[in-house]
Amino acid sequence: MTHPRQPLYAPRGAVATSHPLAVAAGLAVLRRGGNAVDAALATASTLTVVQPPSNDIGGDLFAIVWDGRRLHGLNASGRSPAGLTRDLVLAATGGRGVEPVDALGGAQAAGPAMPARGWLPVTVPGAPAGWRDLHERFGSLPFADLFADAIGYAEQGHPVSTTTAAAWSRAVAGHAGLTGPEYAEFGRVFAADGRAPRAGERWRNPDAARTLRLIADSRAGEFYRGRIAAALTDHAARTGGLLTAADLEAHASVWVDPVPVRYRDHEVWELPPNGQGLAALIALGILDGFDPADGSRWLHRQIEAVKLGFADAHAHVADPDLAPVPSGLLTPEHLARCRATVSDAAADPVTGAPERGGTVYLCTADESGMMVSLIQSTYLAFGSHVVLPGYGFALQNRGLGFRLDVGHPNVVGPAKRPYHTIIPGFLTRQGAPVGPFGVMGGHMQPQGHVQLVSGTVDAGLDPQAALDKPRWYWHAGRSLLVEEQLIAGPGGAARLADLRDRGHQVTVASDSTVFGYGQAIWRHADGGYVVGSEPRVDGGAGGF
Q1: Among 361, 426, 454, 461, who pairs with 438 as Cys (CB 3.0-4.6 Å)?
Q2: What is the CB neighbour count within 10 angstroms for residue 157?
Q3: 131 alpha-carbon distance from chain centroid
Q4: Burial class of residue 70 (count of CB atoms within 10 Å of its CB; 0-12, 13-18, 19+)
């Protein structure tokens, strides 16, 4: 882990995300008089250009907006093609699906799963429509003006950042084994000369500039009913994909009400399914009944509460239009029953852990008090690795979130939204806004939310100090990855011994990316904002 950063104090507005150029794009919009939503859209579109392994135009988006009076949620995730069925997936994969491999290199316990690459896991991209819908309800500057930096970096090029270059290189190495016409464009766009761009090397994507300009000028109409849509459906028809014009035309974002759970004297807000925010809410609701001052037992209880949150989420989260989540999962009675099952020993709940994905998170705030929590992703690095010829973007592989077991609410099927890992968060205190936050990273996200909220509410840390804190990561069974700082220094040896005595199989992680990347903006008591940005990556925060 890098040396902790200092918090940023900004009197009027702020932007925080995982790439400095995207921070600058959002901040420039605020300085031009745009509001927090305008800044979020400029930041989000720029991130598709400067961090393509983690997110792209062909991905999905979720957002929470505090408009100065109340919270609004936007689910801009896409559905599977109408032609996708479980039988088709089984037939295409030899009758049993594929054996999934998790981010730690071992087979998941959940059994055969959806394939990770190619056309089968491709769902309709929701990000372009999400950008339009956020602007339609809350934007103030002209929509097309918000894409200026993104288009400029795509057209004229930008130096690739250190963390992005490393992720890009890993993804290109993994692409080498993929064959078929659907993958042909990937190399031309993202691996010229057979390799990823190096840190500091200038990279251009003029095809993406063209796509972004079409989206900006048509308010995303070209993506779902125009030239981009026609190119997408033609490419699918020629290379074995299921995506059709009808699938694209049918896409629509959904405005939803964020869902809260009480945590001490605060409320933590997440979006309802098909995202996994429910896992974080259940875990925090369980922990609300435990004492954070209870020594080493507190860390153990956090881990066990996260396991229980995931068990409920993996059992019930699916497309809410087709499989509504049981209404009682956040009731005091259910949370008390879960709390009573937390013993002094590590448990081994039955759960299916999704893979760790590539995602970006951003948050913005303006002088009026409007704040935005936004997350977008193509899931695994470069998503499906299917790149649309002539348009410079990869399609997501969110269908990997479906299950193959018959009878599960999240079983793969036509025109369904899959279980989604990306979740924006928001914190209030007795109804008053504190601010937006998020910790990206697949399975890490709900447990990252738990650790950030606990650091803020229980320890009284500013957002930067809360993000700097050493993290732990539970993936499956009793295995637990920790950052070295968590078990080093004063009390570290006793903390490690206590975890192992309770049955946790503790390993110090060699790769800090497993712990996710977070951002947060809190309203300052004296006015303005205090901002934190993830110290484990080359992102940042900006304010004015």
Answers
A1: 361
A2: 16
A3: 16
A4: exposed
Residue 271: DSSP 8-state: P
Tokens coding 9: 């104090």
> Residues 201-228: pLDDT tens digits?
999 999 999 999 999 999 999 999 999 9
**Burial class of residue 99, CB neighbours in 10 A (0-12, 13-18, 19+):** exposed
Q: How far is CA 317 from the centre of its chain?
A: 16
Residue 93: predicted pLDDT: 87
**Integer distance in angstroms from the first to the last C-alpha of the chain?**
28
Query: What pLDDT does 266 receive?
Result: 98
Are 323 and 409 in contact, with CB atoms under 8 Å apart? yes
The span from the CA of 531 to the CA of 465, in Å, is 10
Burial string for 45-60 (b: 16+ CB within 10 Å, else e) reads bbbbbbbbbbbbbbbb
Active site residue 359: yes
pLDDT of 423 > 90? The answer is: yes
Would you state the structure tokens that stand for residue 533, as one six-digit string? 């940005």
In DSSP terms, which residues pair with 75 in a beta bridge?
A: 62, 254
For the record, the structure tokens of 170 come out as 């890993």
What does the DSSP assignment read for 183-207? GHHHHHHH-GGGSPPPTT-EE--HH
DSSP 478-501: TEEEE-GGGSSSTTHHHHHHHHHH
Tokens found for residue 118 = 């190619």
The two structure tokens encoding residue 414: 């036509």
Q: What is the Cα gyration radius of the chain?
A: 22
CB 220 within 8 A of CB 226: no
Query: If you ran DSSP here, which 8-state letter would residue 417 be given?
Result: P
Average pLDDT over residues 273-300: 95
- Residue 141: how many CA atoms within 13 Å on its side-chain side? 22
Q: What pLDDT digit, counting tens, does each position of 30-82 carry?
A: 999 999 999 999 999 999 999 999 999 999 999 999 999 999 999 999 999 99
446: helix, strand or coil: helix
Give residue 87's region: left, alpha or beta (phi > 0; psi -120 to 50): alpha
Residue 153 has pLDDT above 70, yes or no: yes
Amino acid identity for residue 457 in this structure: V
* Assigned token pair, 503: 């049955």
Which among 189, 195, 192, 201 has a CA at the least distance from the CA of 173? 195
Size of the chain in residues = 544
Q: Give the burial string for 491-512 (b: 16+ CB within 10 Å, else e).
A: eeeebbebbeebebebeebeeb
Given 359, 378, 421, 513, the catalytic residue = 359
Query: Which pairs count as long-range contacts for 507-514, CB under 8 Å and 24+ apart, including other chains?
Result: 507/479, 507/480, 507/481, 507/482, 508/481, 508/482, 508/483, 508/484, 509/473, 509/481, 509/482, 509/483, 512/1, 512/483, 512/536, 513/167, 513/441, 514/103, 514/104, 514/356, 514/441, 514/444, 514/473, 514/481
Query: How many whole angstroms separate alpha carbon 77 and alpha carbon 62?
Result: 7
Q: Is the pTM of this model over 0.85?
A: yes
